[in-house]
UniProtKB/TrEMBL annotation:
An annotated GO cellular component: plasma membrane
Originating organism: Lentzea albidocapillata
Record-given protein name: Cystine transport system ATP-binding protein
Single annotated GO MF: ATP binding
UniProtKB keywords: ATP-binding, Nucleotide-binding, Transport
Domain of life: Bacteria
Membrane topology, from the record: Peripheral membrane protein
Subcellular location: Cell membrane
Amino acid sequence: MLFDEPTSALDPELVGEVLAVIKDLASEGWTTVIVTHEIRFAEKVADQVLFLDGGVIVEHGPPGQVIADPREERTRRFLRRVLDHG
């Protein structure tokens, strides 16, 4: 199932509900693809994270690696900007 910015403009309570539904789908064996700028949301729900820049995959891997310890400078710059201001 494809989710395109499923938490955009939602209040925190509804974000939690969306997270629960996506986790339920995953536990039932569904494969999901989620497009999001919400890094902490992605960190909670993803098995794998892909970071794209201009439609090109810059980095991919488990969220703990890509978000916590990115290899690529482009990923690090983006995360610094988003996490410092998000």
